[in-house]
Amino acid sequence: MDTVIGIDIGTQSTKALVIDHQGRILAEHSHGYRVDTPRPLWAEQWPDVWWEAVLTCLRACLSAPGVDPRGVKGLCVSSLYGGSGIPVDAEMRPLHPCLIWMDRRADAQVQWVKEHIDLVRLGDITGNGVDSYYGFTKMMWLKAERPEVWERTRYLLPPNSYINYRLSGEIAIDHSSAGNIGGIYDLEERDWSTEMLDALGLDGDKLPTRVVDSGTPVGGLLPSLAESLGLCADIPVVAGGVDAAMATLAAGATRPGNHVAMIGTSMCWGVINQRVDASQGLISMPHVLNSDRDLYTFGGALTAGASVSWFVDTFCGEDRVAAGEHDSAYDQLEPPARELSPGADGLLFLPYLMGERSPVWDAQASAGFIGLSLYHRRHHLYRAVLEGVTFALRHNMEAGSRQGVTLDSRLIVVGGATRSNLWMQIIADVTRMPVYTFRENVEAALGSALLAGQATGLLDLDQPLRHGTLSERAEPSEAAARRYDDLFDLYCRLYPTLKPIMHRLNANDTLCE
């Protein structure tokens, strides 16, 4: 049976899966690891951890019943947003850990950019703004703080590009990964921006000169590696791309207006479109499908499911310990929370437990409950947390709409949040859209496999596939939606009102250290 393999390198684990010509998953395997955090706000990973995880997952999938390694026609790799990229020398040896998306050390570089660069011009060229999230500020940090590494660096490679090199021996970068670096990629020209590279003082010769579509094979699988895995030599290694866009593809986003919310530890909402407005505070890059034409624009909350887990761990920890392995705290909270009216009897929650990304872009933003009284109990706070994260989702969706994007009338939600019927109803009511979910676990590795299938001719993404069962989970209530409209207005006023206090508290905390 002919098959293809999709691989996704995530922040905490790598996953591989095998699909057939109808998109059905035949085997899958994941392998976990940790993020290195040597200092507060730092987050980095060595690429050898990813490479070993890729090999582990490939071997497990290829040894699964019903999978014939000789029938694999190609593979594709997606990856976490790799920030700075991996600095490698002329022999392709890693010189320094990759400063990944969650690393926030480049604050001084962000301030320099704000003081010395025309931000309107930067936004017009790149479709993006400036923040320590973006890879170009992390590259500037490496140049300033690790000059010996910078001097020896031949290439800066995103995670999937590095793994593709290990698989095929070829050096290339896909358009989605290049665009996600921000700052130095010309979104209109689909190429590196010489103007911005010069303005920012970055070396263009450290970037791959070969920039390709995500669905383009970058080379063939190396014979020695193919032999060790039992695969055929020279099968296509497809470029791949950024995991968020690939997961959106797996959820069926293939044309402008399609939009998907991924709600796990963090939240990422993305829409396919063909124009951007950097002033709205969202992130844009070429999509992993039709990248010469379509863009993937997204925004996200740093702590979505993490806000829920924090609340349950902090306020219901004893219940969870007493119940052992059972999620009894959630079981106890959901029924009474479901009985509450929208607004949890006068409560609002700002979900900025780790600062916030779009559209506010404030590392010093902080979380809080507003409206607390002696009347409120744990289930009130629980519902307020669900509603607060959902307001953050709507905040990003409205920023997308202000760019002139016409959104599809339904919202597809994937990720761990879909296990909660209450949360799905809240999302429908807050966004005024029917919410659809997949019965299966739709994620980036599946998107990679679908792209590999199209690149090898095994699949046609224009045709219906059996890779997932989509069903309606919640229909918005007009009465609830009207109430949430008022609450969302208050939610949007909270951050600018409290911002000076948040920053003052953050400054005082820093001084106390």
Automatic annotation (TrEMBL):
Positions of the Carbohydrate kinase FGGY N-terminal domain: 4-249
CDD domains reported in the protein's UniProt record: ASKHA_NBD_FGGY_RrXK-like (cd07804)
Pfam families: FGGY_C, FGGY_N
Keyword Kinase found: yes
Class of enzymatic activity (EC top level): transferase
Annotated InterPro entries: ATPase_NBD, Carb_kinase_FGGY, Carb_kinase_FGGY_CS, FGGY_C, FGGY_Carb_Kinase, FGGY_N
Carbohydrate kinase FGGY C-terminal domain boundaries: 261-454
The organism of origin for this protein: Litchfieldella rifensis
Sequence similarity: Belongs to the FGGY kinase family.
Kinase listed as a keyword: yes
Enzyme Commission number(s) of this protein: 2.7.1.-
Keywords: Kinase, Transferase
Protein name (record): FGGY-family carbohydrate kinase
GO molecular function, one term: kinase activity
